[in-house]
Amino acid sequence: MVEMDSGLDTRRIVHPMERIVTGRLIRLLDGYTREVRIGQPVLVAVLAAAAFARLPALLLRSLFSFGGGGTRRRWKELKQGPEYLVTPVRLRNAAGQLCEVELHGHLPQSALHPADQVQLTLRPQRDPELPPRIERIVNLTTGQLLTPRTATLWSHLGPPLLLQAFLGTLLLAGVAACSALT
User: Which is it for strands 83-93 and 144-146: parallel, antiparallel or unpaired?
Assistant: First the structure.
């Protein structure tokens, strides 16, 4: 009986150690989600600065009975980090080894196809048991340069909250400067 090489034999899968790997894409496996960890000290600092910026608005609202502001996300929602898509990718490198790497984030569906020749720029992950993650893909078959993007702490918090935190920091610095001068 002849054994067929499907390219998916898990006993021979390696995690590449090189920074740049060139090979033929074998398969994109089913993706799953992971959560970005949110450090509580950073979250507390941003929320405290944003709260300081909201103080003048709260005073005006209470004095003149203006309508309430927009809906705010709760601590629990902010503390739970954003999720991002992780897609295991299998490729056969130039030495003929079957390699597994991870793609974090999203790419256009038509960007990669099995049998495409690709050059991957990799970065090791904090957990040495996990395969390296893809930073950049050059699809040599189509000539496309692809950079996957994932959610970050800053995109999770959002521009309105970050703007409030920045204004709160400026307001706090102004109050501190005034109190130092008097």
Answer: unpaired
